[in-house]
From TrEMBL:
Protein name (database record): Rhodanese domain-containing protein
InterPro entries per the UniProt record, alphabetical: FAD-bd_OxRdtase, FAD/NAD-bd_sf, FAD/NAD-binding_dom, FAD/NAD-linked_Rdtase_dimer_sf, Pyr_nucl-diS_OxRdtase_dimer, Rhodanese-like_dom, Rhodanese-like_dom_sf
GO MF: oxidoreductase activity
Domain (Rhodanese): residue spans on this chain: 461-548
Entry keyword set: FAD, Flavoprotein, Oxidoreductase, Redox-active center
Required cofactor names: FAD
Similarity remark: Belongs to the class-III pyridine nucleotide-disulfide oxidoreductase family.
Organism: Halolactibacillus alkaliphilus
Amino acid sequence: MKLIVIGAVAAGTSAAAKARRNQDDLEITIYEKDVDISYSGCGLPYYIGNEVESIEELTPRDPAFFKKKYNIDIHTAHLVTKIDHDNQQVYVKNLQTDETFTDSYDKLVIATGAKSIVPPIDGVDLPHVHSLRTVQDARRIKGYIDEHQPKKAVVVGTGFIGFEMLENLIERDIDVVIVEMKPHITSNLDPDMADYLEDKLAKKGIDVRTSKTVQTIRADYVLIDEGETIPADLVILATGVKPNVTLAKAIGIEIGQTGAIKVNERMETNIKNIYSCGDCIETFQRQTNQPVYRPLGSTANKTGRIAGDQLSGGSLEFKGILGTSIYKLFEFAIANTGLSEIEARDAGYDVEISHNIKPDKPAYFNGTEMNIKAIADRESKKLLGVQIVGQAGVDKRIDVFSTLITYGATVDELFHLDLAYAPPFSTTKDPIHYSGMILDNAMTNNRALKTSEDVRKMQADNQPLQIIDARAEKQHIVNCVDGAISMPHAIVRARLNELDKNLPTVTYCNSGTTGNAVQNILINYGFKDVSNLSGGNKFYQATKKKQDK
């Protein structure tokens, strides 16, 4: 049997390697239009920023490696221009010689990946304007910086690449302004967590312009809305990617509702003997079974392995994704898994939300705070999704949360997890435990939560509300929730007569623990409707700055 694979990055090489492991007598050929194969695209910004010294570290495998180890023939700079599925042939053009030829297959894998979205902006074709998708892109950007020594850059977009380029350009002593057309940065976070992150970046002096669109690019500046100009002698377009489906569409392969190739759980397309995998396909969200397009390297490798296994007689099937992701931005790690609050509400869930701000380990071991937003379903009490912004230990927690969601954990089960504890690694009750306790208390023990957004909306609607600041008086003077009464935890029992037991009441402290303690006191003394402010004053103040703009 002869296998042809179109594309030799993560998915294509994974498919070919798995097929070879299953069947040693296969004839396997891969055609790749680029000159680089099997590279780590996620590492490219760090090469530009000189954190990765050599591009060879990101391209450790060449065609000779695959020939020697797997007996796979990889032809780089070879573009497949057409597929004839009736006769099971591909038409190929050698981009170095312009020679064209045909090759036949018994099974075909389309792993054509994705391509950068280049918006139709006047000046987008200028030499100092770049997108980053491939190794060649990275070489061009790094070469341009080395040669021209730009001093001011504009990065357009706040996805993974946009933020990673922001950090690495700053590492090259380039002043950067980041422009985002949406009201909130980073689409992998809900607006409240995005605002929290934006506040952290503002405190670092990072210039972020949201709700702004680039209108024109010139040699030394970028023109955005309302005639504002931003000096820039380097522009990075990080405006997302779209699936490369041209070949597939030309032969009638079904395209899904996300615009990517539609496959089943075996990576089969609607045309017999043709499979697809990687960044050109749509997958499905594990919890809702709805189609999604999430082009991540981890998913590309996984779907490639499944395609290679299936076409060579295996039984691997795709189980869906939670969209788990993580990226680094300066000292912060930003991660998410499962459904966002917006996605959960859109899917019809009655959600409970908690914002849990806790250190990753004790202060005496230099613990730093992480903010964990957890989304749960009130009816089933299942954990639906988690988002984390923190400095240390974020990767550990998001992977635990991803595992819990995968196997349908309910929030009460989080407290009972037997997690590893020692002071250099965690607190005695881990932040994961706390998130479970907060949600379980809210849903089963009448310890209701209100988000900052809930409080602002109640106030905007002039609803009756009394807000109690349980912190020390000196903290209240520095800043507080709008309309709050200072009533420190230590003296709240003595001042209960100042409060109306029948009014909706919100308690808070800096991050939630003391606010919950005062909430318990009020409930025990017969107050009817008492909520604790999710995330406390820290989260309220961080998101308030964005709301007040």
